Amino acid sequence: MSDIQKRSDAVFIGNYSRYPVTLVSGKGCVVTDEDGRQYLDFLAGIAVCSLGHCHPDVSEAIQKQASELVHVSNLYYTTPQLELAERLVANSFADKVFFCNSGAEANEGAIKLARIHSAPGKYQIISLEGSFHGRTLAALAATGQPRFHQGFEPIPEGFVHAPFGDLAALETMISESTCAILCEPIQGESGVRPLDTEYLKGLRKLCDRHGLLLIFDEVQTGIGRSGRLFAYEHSGVIPDIMTLAKALANGLPMGAMLTTDAVAKSLLPGTHATTFGGNPVVAAAAVAVLDSMLAPGFLDGVALRGQYLQDQLAGLVPLYPELLEGVRGTGMLQALVLTEKGKTQGTEIVRAMLESGVLINFAGNAALRFAPPLIATEAEMDTVVEKLKVVLAGVS
Ligand SMILES: *Cc1c(COP(=O)(O)O)cnc(C)c1O
Q: Rounded to whole angstroms, how far apart are CA atoms 355 and 333?
């Protein structure tokens, strides 16, 4: 264990189990540790550094803004957040935007908005089993994974979890008190599990029929990850509220909640706020991110290379049938689904990949997740797949 790791263990609360690596710099898809070892980063800070590490336009935007104005409070107007909001509105279903600092905070905002927008007595939100919406108490309550709730009871009221992908079961849970349905178009943390288009269309119909709001948590799938700017575009199903965070500012902490004019008007002055949300530096970074992603051809390239990655990963499945069950994902959010035997070795596989110079993770105790920077090349994907072959051969 290095000196930095020993000192860290002495002073940090132990809520993270970290790998024994101290990363000191990054460029593109490569990060470097304190000993000068390089790693291909196919996790990108968990779908955050989508333009790669230290993207020149983003770093320049941060530096420029940091020497002009860093923070003044949302009591005043600032231009970078306006430029960002205009871009988000112009490129999504939404008419209105609220900026915050994380995915959980964006979901808290969505939960509050859904409640205040709905008639008195309508407060309950239906989310899905296997979902992940963040660690703050309401976002945690929405999260449909009991293991994250343990020890934190009482969990805030007003949330129920429907079985994944079962529209009929969800419909039976709608009651007088329901105000919204919340889901990720592709569940990220439980192992990259997409909801199919028919299901999403069914949710929209249920919401329209029962007067409910449809909330899409695109914290992980949004901002280009799926090969479109937002994953909802694949299904054509339009939500009433959408939350964003992870890739929005390519690594600076930033979240956003987007909605329609009709819903936005319920959030009156004084009902919701955040100190740092949309400050000039993070907003300037996010403007640079969107300008890169909206450049002609960028997202098409993500879709094409995402398909390439999926094809290469699919090629491994028949080679290691005792470990691998299949591949699933969209764009550059891909997963190798592990068999029951494979699941017992997921942690070991990720660790062996790290030792061979590749960062990936084991999502939901179910699948190996690949979320490389969206700029990852086919050659970089080939390298990862070759190393994975060696690791899987060693494990099986
Ligand atoms: C990561 C994630 C969150 C939580 O985001 P934080 O920034 O960690 O609070 C919420 N929803 C989804 C789908 C996520 O992937």
A: 23
